[in-house]
Amino acid sequence: MCPRAEPHIGLALGFSPLTAGLIFGVPGLAAVAAGMIAGRFIGRFGSRKVLAVGLAVQGRATLPLVFLGTDRMALVVLIPALFVGFFGHVTSIVADTVTATSGLPNEEQGLATGLTSMTQQVAITVGIPILSSVAATQSMELTGIHLALSVNVAVTLLSVVLIWFGLRPRGERRTAAAAGPVWKESEKELAASSA
Fold first, then answer.
1. Residue 57 and residue 85 in contact, taking contact as beta carbons nearer than 8 Å
2. What is the mean pLDDT of residues 168-193?
3. Closest Cα partner for 87 from 123, 42, 53, 124?
4. Counting beta carbons within 10 angstroms of the beta carbon of residue 76, is it exposed (0 to 12), middle (13 to 18) or buried (19 or more)?
5. Are residues 95 and 47 in contact, defined by beta-carbon separation less than 8 angstroms?
6. Is 105 left (phi over 0), alpha (psi -120 to 50) or beta?
7. Which of 13, 40, 69, 101 is the most buried (most CB within 10 A)?
8. How far is residue 154's CA from residue 195's CA, in Å, rounded to a whole number?
9. pTM score of the predicted model
């Protein structure tokens, strides 16, 4: 869920600027809640799981927004989806920062944090124009927003897969890589003993 693009949904649905502003206060509440709880999740489940699950929650919470119409009943879907999506979004940002800075000496913590923050800002700077360009391909504003949100969901869920397999602990990688040779070695020993 692109944090700075979401207010356009409220305006496209015909809400006044004041109503749209009040609605989009909901992500701020979700961010505060996630900021306080994310550390506990990371301590209990590990940063890789929290990062992947946070992004999966974000992507799945964005999905209903793709199907919103212009009636006022859209608020019933919009407000909970925004809260849940931004909760997942902020939780994954915390997990991303913890992942990037874990295991580093104290003198490298600032550099790692800076690189992580810069990566997030570059992603926003590049992502918003790309999604805006996708939205602009449609003649109707709401249809364009739906298309851009669909792309957002697809990229977010693809990222979950890449993170889940790309951030596996080193022990899991060694076990998977070593399983083949160990199995072949035991097969050779079995063949030699039976001969």
1. yes
2. 52
3. 53
4. exposed
5. yes
6. beta
7. 13
8. 56
9. 0.76
